[in-house]
Amino acid sequence: MQLQSTDPNLQTFWHVCGLDKDDERVMRAVRGYIQPLIPRLTDAFYEILATDPQTAPLIEGRVAQLKRTHIAWLESLFNGDYGAAFISRQRQIGAVHVRAKIPPTFVAASMSFLRGALPDVLAANVADKDGAKAATGTLLRLLDLCQFLIDRSYDGTLSDGLMNNLGISPALLARLQTAGKKF
Ligand code: HEM
Question: What is the CATH code for 8-154?
Answer without folding.
Answer: 1.10.490.10
